Each structure stands twice: as structure tokens, then as C-alpha cells.
Amino acid sequence: MTGGLLVLGLGGCTARTDTPTPAASSSAPAKPSAAAVPAVTVTTVRAQQRDLPVVLSATGTVMPLTSVDIKSQVNSIVGKVHIRDGQFVKAGELLFTLDSRADEANLAKARAQLAKDNAALADAQRQLVRAQQLLAQNFVSQGAVDSAQAQVDAARATGVADQAAIDASRVALSYDRISAPNSGRAGAINVSPGSAVQANLTMLVTITQLDPIAVGFNLPQRNLADALSALKNGGAVVSARIADGGASFIGHLQFVDNAVDAASGSVKVKAIFDNKEGKLWPGAFVEVSQTVNVLKDAVVVPQATIIPNARGPMVYVVQAGKAVLRPVQVIFAQGDDAAVTGVKAGESIVLDGKQNVRPDTPVVERASAAKGGASRAAGSASAS
User: Fold this and answer.
1) Residue 241 pairs with which residues in a beta bridge?
2) Measured between alpha carbons, how far is 141 from 138 in angstroms, rounded to an integer?
3) What is the pLDDT of residues 107-138, one digit of tens each?
4) Under CATH, which number does the domain 57-64+209-295 receive?
5) Using CB atoms within 10 A of its CB, is residue 283 exposed (0-12), middle (13-18) or buried (19+)?
6) Domain 41-52+296-383 sits in CATH 3.30.559.30
7) Whole-model pTM over 0.85
């Protein structure tokens, strides 16, 4: 009996030993750590500190310095046309001759009248001399001498009037010869020999000056002070290029208008260009560029690195292997470059691949590619 109980007791002890303890059953295996964020490969550029020219680009219109509509000052008939359509003429060159027979007759009549009155003056002077001699001999009174003197004075005044009539006839005769008031190119001739012309109404031809020639364009109000300063220093250099890849020209700013257009916020300006070859034609459109200022020691980054944001423009700056989003202020943007504040010269700015970057994302830098990379980055930024 004793042996049987002992066996049961040992068996019960063995069963309790195999049962797991509460402490052992409550323990669980440790969770694995979170996966690390993968690094993004990006292209970076260095912010540069340099002088950045402020170049104004605009579309200008070629305009002549002078363009004169030639009209007759008298009613007459065209006698002869001395030029051809499109001919280049010099100042003072004869263009048209009108029928001058009536004016020549009037001039001859005025000259004949002057000759007649000069003869009367000579007779009056002789009568005055005789009257003075008779007065010395007491044969006539002083009144007779005074009358003779009055006749001489009247004859002289008549002669002066006749000379004025001759001058007027010469002026009228000069209107029958129409000359070029300035050098330039003649346009289409609107009359032919035998055509009747009306005074100050009938347009005969237009003479347009082509060399030098002007280009007019609009300057923003913010650049007005720079333009006025350049105008005092002899005129800023202005370059013009004919649209559709034409030739380029260099001129100088010559004129700034005296008022700002309230509707557009711009002021009209004019630059002068040499045009000896006649490539700039009135009415043509040209692409104008002018350096109005230079930003000294500006921090310059490619425009493709700037990210538009509701809080303002941003850039990704690489610091300690991570992309840090930093706000910037654009002072001036032109072409592929932008002068900004908020970054320092020498800092690495993300150019390509920024659409895949988030703040504090690890990045792997690579050298900047050609200019095409900047344009691709700009397109990617716009798409994102």
C-alpha cells in the first residue's frame, strides 16, 4: 500500500513540472524594427554668387525718324514726275514739276510794274531838284518844294510795294517745283503728268527716312529710373533682332516718354539704330533686349530648382545627406537663372529628381547634367 501511494505521488509531481508557468506563457517574441527610408538619387547644383545683369526683353516696332507726306501747296497740273516708285532721294532733290505758266506771267507783270514805278520815282526826284533850285531863286514857295518831296516819297514807297509783289510771285512760282524735304525712300507715286492736284489735299508721295531708324517699345515702370539714368550717360545699349531668326542690330536708347501709361504701367521709349543696309523696315516687329541694371554679388540658382508653393517659392537644400525644404525669395528671374535670398553661395540645391523628394529624405547626389536636365526638371516640377 505504501509503495502504491508513493508511485502516484511521483507521477503527480511529474505532471506539474511539464505544465508551463504563467510567466513563460505570457512572454512573446520581439517585433522587427521599421525598415529604413531608401535614399533618392538627385542631381544637384551649387548656388553661385556673381553679378547678374537685369536684361529687359520686349517686342518693339520699327518706326522711321521722319516720314513726310508730300502735297502741293497750290492748285495746279502735274507737269513732270522726276522720280520712280521706291527710289532713294536726297534732301532738296527735285520730285515734281507743276504747270508754272500762270505764276511766271504774274512774276513778269510784277517786274514790269516795278520798272514803271521806278521811272515815276526818277521823274519825281528830278521835279524835286528843280523845285529846290527855283526856291533858291525865290521863284517858288516852300510849299512847292514840299509837294515835290512828297511825290518822291510816295514813288519810293510804291517801289517797295512792287518789290514785295515780285517776292510773292517768286514764292508762288517756287511752289511749282516740289523738292524732297529730307533724305529717304519714296513710296508709291500717286500722280502722273497731267494729273490735277488740289492745294494741301492731294498726296503725291511719301518720303520715309530709313537710316538711321528707330525702334519703339514699352518699358515697365519699375525700370524707369534705370532708363532715365542711362539716358543721361549717353544712352544705354539696346540690341534688336528681327523676328523669326533674322539679323541682330546694336543701338542706343534715345527717348523716354514724359508719362507712364496708367492702363499698362509702362512708359514708351525709343532706341536709334544704324540701318545703312536697309534691313530694318518700318512697321516690322523686332525682339528688343536692353541691360537696365546689374545685380552685384547676387546669389544665383537655376530657375528649375525653384518649387512653387502656396507659402511661397521653395528649394531643396542638401544638408548632411538629406533634402531640407527651405523658403526663398526671388529677387529677379531671367532666362535659366534667378537671383534669390534664403540660400548661401556654395550650397547644394536639388535640380533633377525633386519630384521624388520629401522633406528630410536621404538623397544621393550626382553631378548636374547639361542644360536639358534643367528643362526636364522644370517640366517634372510643373507636372508634380
Assistant:
1) 248, 287
2) 7
3) 999 999 999 999 999 999 999 999 999 999 99
4) 2.40.30.170
5) exposed
6) no
7) no
